[in-house]
Design brief:
The protein has 126 residues and is of the alpha/beta class. It is built from four helices and five strands.
């Protein structure tokens, strides 16, 4: 049985809040089930790792809870969030711009290695 879940958020567009609920919620559930869970934010989803972005987004219009609140809940449950390295240049960010819940920056090789070489890993993409 797999021990690790990697959720890749590549096609999830932060400008469309309802797209953000499922991957972050499933990450939280996976961590609550005692799986090691990593969420890798790449492409447009990389914006979520920038301070000030997720704080201004909601999954559902009128909700008092922001996307950043969901990220904090997931992080508290044990989920590790990562920003893909090209996002720094794409969105004019530095490491100092990343939210505290972001565990670091990873490149494409890290993502491919997780998928191809870790037999204890399962991957979901959004």
């Amino acid at each position: 049985m797999a021990e690790k879940l990697v959720i890749i958020m590549a096609n999830t567009d932060p400008r469309n809040g309802e797209e953000l609920g499922a991957p972050i919620f499933q990450a939280t559930v996976g961590a609550a089930m005692d799986y090691e869970v990593e969420v890798i934010c790449t492409a447009t989803s990389g914006r979520l790792m920038k301070k000030g972005v997720a704080e201004n987004l909601v999954v559902k219009e009128g909700s008092p809870k922001t996307v950043y609140d969901f990220i904090k809940d997931a992080h508290e449950a044990g989920v590790k969030f990562f920003c893909c390295s090209p996002n720094l240049d794409l969105f004019d960010m530095s490491e100092d711009d990343l939210i505290p819940e972001c565990s670091g920056i990873v490149g494409g090789a890290y993502l491919i290695e997780q998928v191809m070489e870790d037999d204890e890993c399962r991957v979901l993409t959004y």
